[in-house]
Amino acid sequence: MSDVKKELQNVEKKIEEGIVEGVQKVKETLSNVASHLPLANISRNKEKDVFTIEIDLPGVKKEDIELTLDGDILTVTAERKLSHDIKEDDYYLMESSYGKFVRSFTLADDIDRDSINAEYKDGRLIITFEKVPEKKRRDITIK
Asked: CA dihedral in degrees (101, 105, 111, 112; nearest 10)?
């Protein structure tokens, strides 16, 4: 009976080790995916009711950025290309991400789609947009 008990304990231990290893791989995968997404900051100027999305895209050329609006989804697609002068196997360490990056944002119904503007400067894409004029906050005088 003790041999069966030891065998069951070994099986339990292997299952636990497999679960821990699986969770660790999932964490590493998610961390890797997150590190390849461009970082974004979203802010609002309450006085002007203007919203701003700033997306860091260092090393990306302006012509390699695409901004699209499809319904309520504003999507930024960009590609950071590896320099043709240096081959990947020439590096001792390569922590920079290369390839295609995609970030999408869902816009609220009260956003004026025609007010969306984008500017790219110093590796940062700045997108601004406003609320629909009729839906902006206003003070009402009481008579």
From this structure: 20
